[in-house]
């Protein structure tokens, strides 16, 4: 008599998690391991990385090849020429030399603020969300207080109280980091509250793992996309805030940044003198670098939330189904 129990030989070849009767995908189209977690390479991400890398290389290599930005080349304001590709300032300093050093200074401040703000948000958000209790309540209260205080006025007040001769890059970076971590901490706390109730975190607790190991090994790796997105956003906000402070005369006094270039261009009446080569290049660098980081941030948002990519996939699937339907109609008509 023929057995009614299906043979397991046909199930042995199915990949884990596949349903019986499902056709397995070809080996060439399947991605396993960490490759399955990588997003598709989008033009948005490629353009953003290209802009950021180009400006970063300009800020890193440019000062090595350029001359001293404080050297007086001539005694007047001159337009771009073969000798000075971006012209000179009112005091005869080469704008291109100043632009290379100013780009490096702005990138340094942006990187410092991004690292410090991300660390502060991780400490107050992840540790508070995992430990809970009075620690979480205290961290949440402090985060809410920092969140409701207007950021820009607080930065202006703090920078105004610091003496001008002590306002260096580290001071400005510290002020911007202290006033810009609270919103990210709230997001990380919400994500940590969701992750800490999952089975693998409970298994680590039952196994006797120490809290710091559970946080570093089980929770933080699952929050890396969120941390990366917050780091990129912190760098954007830091560069824009520093440019605004320097334009108001409250920036770093002993370092050159893109904001200080705009400040001296405004004081030298560059706009009234139609000296566009003095204020357009630093403003363009800020805008292009911010655009590149924004594109990267949007790509990271798509990695964090795959639903943002669903409309594109639905349109592609709808177009594919429509083309197959049309081909079927044409074959039937033939």
Automatic annotation (TrEMBL):
The UniProt regions of compositional bias labelled Polar residues, in chain numbering, are 1-10
Question: What Gene3D superfamilies does the record tag this protein with?
Answer: MetI-like
Query: Where is this protein localized, as stated in its record?
Result: Cell membrane
Entry-linked InterPro entries = BP-dependent_transpt_permease (IPR050366), MetI-like (IPR000515), MetI-like_sf (IPR035906)
- Which is an annotated GO molecular function term of this record? dipeptide transmembrane transporter activity
TM ranges:
45-66, 109-131, 138-162, 168-188, 231-255, 275-300
Q: Where is this region: Disordered?
A: 1-29, 315-334
UniProt keyword Transmembrane, yes or no: yes
What family does the entry list? Belongs to the binding-protein-dependent transport system permease family.
Q: What is this protein called?
A: ABC transporter permease
Instruction: Name the keywords, alphabetized.
Output: Cell membrane, Membrane, Transmembrane, Transmembrane helix, Transport
- Topology of the protein relative to the lipid bilayer: Multi-pass membrane protein
ABC transmembrane type-1 domain spans which residues?
107-297
């Amino acid at each position: 008599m023929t057995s009614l129990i299906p043979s397991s030989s046909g199930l042995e070849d199915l990949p884990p998690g596949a349903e019986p009767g499902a056709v397995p995908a070809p080996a060439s189209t399947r991605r396993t391991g960490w490759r399955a977690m990588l997003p598709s390479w989008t033009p948005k991400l490629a353009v953003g990385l290209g802009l950021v890398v180009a400006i970063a290389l300009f800020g890193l290599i440019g000062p090595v090849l350029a001359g001293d930005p404080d050297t007086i080349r001539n005694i007047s304001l001159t337009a771009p020429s073969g000798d000075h590709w971006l012209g000179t300032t009112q005091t005869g300093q080469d704008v291109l030399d100043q632009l290379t050093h100013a780009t490096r200074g702005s990138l340094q401040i942006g990187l410092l603020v991004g690292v410090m703000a991300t660390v502060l948000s991780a400490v107050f958000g992840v540790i508070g969300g995992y430990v809970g209790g009075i620690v979480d309540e205290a961290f949440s209260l402090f985060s809410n207080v920092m969140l409701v205080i207007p950021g820009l006025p607080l930065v202006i007040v703090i920078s105004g109280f610091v003496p001008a001769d002590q306002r260096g890059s580290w001071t400005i970076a510290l002020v911007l980091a202290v006033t810009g971590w609270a919103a990210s901490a709230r997001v990380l706390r919400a994500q940590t509250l969701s992750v800490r109730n999952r089975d693998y975190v409970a298994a680590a607790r039952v196994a006797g793992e120490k809290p710091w190991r559970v946080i570093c090994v089980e929770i933080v790796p699952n929050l890396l996309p969120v941390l990366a997105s917050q780091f990129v956003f912190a760098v954007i906000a830091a560069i824009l805030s520093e440019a605004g402070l320097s334009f108001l005369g409250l920036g770093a006094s002993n370092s050159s940044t893109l904001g200080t270039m705009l400040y001296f261009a405004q004081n030298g009446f560059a706009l009234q003198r139609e000296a566009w080569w003095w204020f357009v290049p630093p403003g363009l660098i800020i805008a292009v670098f911010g655009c590149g980081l924004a594109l990267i941030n949007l790509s990271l948002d798509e990695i964090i939330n795959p639903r943002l990519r669903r409309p594109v996939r639905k349109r592609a699937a709808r177009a594919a189904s429509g083309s197959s339907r049309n081909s079927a109609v044409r074959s039937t008509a033939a």
